[in-house]
Structures are given as C-alpha cells and as structure tokens.
Write a structure and sequence with these properties.
The chain has one domain. The chain has three helices and 20 strands. The protein has a seven-stranded antiparallel beta sheet, with no helix packed on it. A six-stranded mixed beta sheet has the order 6-7-8-9-10-11. The chain is globular. The protein starts with 6 loop residues before the first strand and ends with a strand.
C-alpha cells in the first residue's frame, strides 16, 4: 500500500508584524529559503505537494476575474488628485498615512530639491474604482503606492497592484534588489481588513500564481509556486560545485 503525503507544512498566523520565519527545512526544499512576514489579521499558510496544490486550484471557482489598472496620462491624474486631496498632496509633499495609524511627510523630488537622498520621485499611473495607483522611486528603492479614497490611506506594495472584481482585495507580486534580492507577495483585504506581505529572499523565482475563490465560504486565497536553484561556487580545481541547497519547487497557498 502506497501512502502519499499531501500536506508538507501548515501554519496559522494571526497579527504578526515583521516576523522572520523559516519553516522550510531540508525535508521540504533542500536547504532553507529565508522568509519574512509583515502582516495584520489572520492568515493560514500551507505548503502543499504538487498533487494537492493542483487540486486546490481546480476546486476553486472557475478563474476569478482580476482587474489590472490601465495606465493613463500621469500629469492630468496628478492635477485631479491634488485638487481632490490637497491635504494629502500639495505638489511638493505627500502626507502618507497607512493602516497602522502611521503618517509620514515625503518630499517630492524636483529641480529645487537640494538633497536627492531626502526625496522621492512619484508617477501617477492609474485611477481604478476607488483607488489611485502611483509608482515611487528613491535612493536604491522603488515600489507602488495605492491610495484608497474611502479611508484616505496609502498601501505599499513591491509590485503593480491588481484587484478582485469587487475591488475589495488587492494582490501584487514584485522583485526587489537592494543589499539583497528577493520576491515580495502582497495580499490586502479591505472590508474585513487584513494584509500580508510575504517576502522570500534571495534566489527564488515565481513560476505561477492563481487567486482562489472558495464558493462555499465566499473567502479568497492566493496560490503560487516558487522555484529555488542551488548556489554554485568555483573550487580549487576551477570546477563548480553546489555550496547551498538543491533545485526544487515550493507550492504555497495563503488564505
């Protein structure tokens, strides 16, 4: 009788901010793939075998529609935003308030900026439903800001945000490279507020992703698979050998 293990690892996490976890041991992926979680709310994180990963995707409601922002004229959108929200953006500064009751005054780089290290470049990309989407860039950093007109808060993501068709969920995937490199997966739910930023550092590649919808509960989830390549180094014989890990694919579902 053959036994197949479908669930490789399972954890439930509630309201953890900036916690490093390393649940990927040698039995899962041949060496640790460093992870970092920054989250508010309750999430389940599952690490599945390929068979059950594909099953969970197939049982989800048929291909949930994802809405991607359409890029528009940045100048016109900036004027509209400044006119509608003068307390948030006055042309020289943004007052960025986030869901953690934090606020930060951020200078916009322009020709009069004396120190480019103390300012950011901003580009208005799109307005979609109740959201404005901006791209920001600064000294060795860049990403996206999504402004919600209903709560007047900004939400950071590493990648370009996408939305569920009811505009209650935001999803984003983005790579970064500063001091170290990695992939960040962002998942935000607005009505019953919760948010998660799942960072996998170093040598991982996003192979595929799917947004899941559980028809029986009305809940959403996010399924994605990551590949990890081994690290090679040259030895004394001018040959290359593996110094860390082995090639593998990790399949993750967050809901």
């Amino acid at each position: 009788m053959k036994t197949i293990t479908l669930l490789l690892a399972y954890i439930t996490i509630t309201t953890i901010n900036g916690q490093n976890i390393n649940v990927l041991n040698d039995s899962l992926c041949g060496g640790k793939m460093s992870q970092h979680l920054d989250m508010q709310g309750h999430f389940n994180i599952h690490y599945w075998s390929d068979k059950f990963y594909q099953y969970r995707i197939s049982e989800s409601a048929d291909s949930l529609s994802i809405v991607k922002p359409k890029i528009v004229d940045s100048g016109a959108l900036m004027i509209e935003f400044q006119s509608s929200f003068p307390d948030v953006f006055n042309g020289d500064y943004f007052l960025v308030k986030t869901s953690g009751n934090n606020s930060k005054k951020i200078a916009v780089c322009n020709s009069d900026t004396s120190n480019p290290y103390d300012c950011y470049g901003f580009e208005f990309l799109s307005k979609i439903d109740k959201f404005y989407v901006l791209k920001y860039s600064g000294f060795e950093t860049q990403g996206y800001l999504t402004f919600n007109t209903e709560d007047s808060l900004f939400y950071y993501t590493q990648g370009m945000p996408m939305f569920s068709k009811d505009f209650d969920k935001l999803f984003a995937f983005g790579y970064y490279s500063h001091m170290r490199s990695g992939l960040v997966i962002d998942f935000i739910e607005f009505k019953n507020f919760r948010k998660l930023s799942f960072e996998v550092a170093s040598y991982s590649t996003l192979e595929d992703w799917n947004v899941l919808y559980y028809e029986n509960t009305g809940n959403y989830g996010l399924a994605f698979s990551l590949s990890k390549s081994p690290i090679y180094a040259e030895n004394e014989e001018s040959d290359f050998e593996i110094v860390e890990g082995k090639e593998c694919v990790l399949r993750v579902i967050i809901d």
